[in-house]
Amino acid sequence: MRTSIRLTVLAAAALALSTCAFATTTTATMNVSAYVPAACTLTVNPLAFGLYDPIAVNLTAPKHAQTSLFVTCTGGAPATITMGAGANWVTASNTRSMIDGTTLGILNYSLFSGAVDSTPWGDATEATNSAAGLAYTGLGNTSTVTVYGTIPGAQLSTFVNQGATQPLFTDTVTVSVIY
After folding, report:
1. Mean pLDDT for each 10-residue chunk of the chain (179 residues)?
2. What pLDDT was estimated at residue 115?
3. In the prediction, which pLDDT does 16 show?
4. Domains and CATH numbers, the chain
5. For residue range 28-63, what is the model confidence (pLDDT) as tens digits?
6. If we measure between CA atoms, which residue out of 52, 135, 59 comes closest to residue 97?
7. Strand order in the sheet with 175-178
8. Sign of CA dihedral 161, 162, 168, 171
9. Is the Cβ–Cβ distance between 177 and 75 less than 8 Å?
10. 62 in Cβ contact with 52 (< 8 Å)
11. Residue 158's pLDDT is what?
12. Strands, sheet with 40-44, edge to edge from the N-terminal-most edge strand
């Protein structure tokens, strides 16, 4: 009886081992993908020159100011940041201008993408003297881009003060990210 139990245990063990010895595995790879299109967002701060004094300080010196744009584009996305001509573009002189609300008083100014007065910033149209936009490559996070502005000095003849002690001169420029 002992011998038959031993043989039965040995047979069961041999059967179990023979089943494991013949097991096989097949593998394959699975590709995983996602398409991430180029995308950008833009936040624009106002450009405030503050007080422009054409009689004293700015009689011989321009008035400079700067502000920031915040651009977020997907990593590696090629883009161009452009500045339109503004709502008060003066075609006769090809100049951006701010007006005092009466459209009689104007104050000319320029926008630049490089250090003050170095690289005019436009949208590559005739309305911005063909000044190009700023080439930009997305980093996948928010980047700060500086806008430099200049009001040329000695703009005495452009003012028509209709009783206001300090007229506010304004313009609206369309800023775009083309991607």
Report:
1. 56 55 88 95 97 92 96 95 94 89 83 87 84 94 96 78 70 96
2. 81
3. 56
4. 40-178 (2.60.40.1090)
5. 999 999 999 999 999 999 999 999 998 899 999 999
6. 52
7. 134-137, 78-83, 175-178
8. negative
9. no
10. no
11. 62
12. 40-44, 63-73, 142-151, 106-112, 96-99
Q: State residue 30's pLDDT score.
A: 97
Joined together, the tokens standing for residue 115 give 């250090």
Cα–Cα distance for residue pair 107/158, rounded to 1 Å: 6
Task: Give yes or no for a contact between 106 and 115, defined as CB atoms under 8 angstroms apart.
Answer: no
Contacts of 31 (CB under 8 A, 6+ apart): none
Helix (H) or strand (E) holding 106: strand 106-112
Find tokens 């422009």 and name the residue.
Answer: 52
Token digits of residue 28? 């394959």
**Which helix (DSSP H) or strand (DSSP E) does residue 59 occupy?**
helix 57-60
Alpha-carbon distance of 91 to 85, in angstroms, equals: 10
Q: In this structure, how many other beta carbons lie within 10 angstroms of the beta carbon of residue 153? A: 16
What does pTM read for this prediction?
0.78
Token reading at 144: 């700060």
Compute the CA torsion angle 49, 55, 61, 67 (nearest 10 deg). Answer: 0
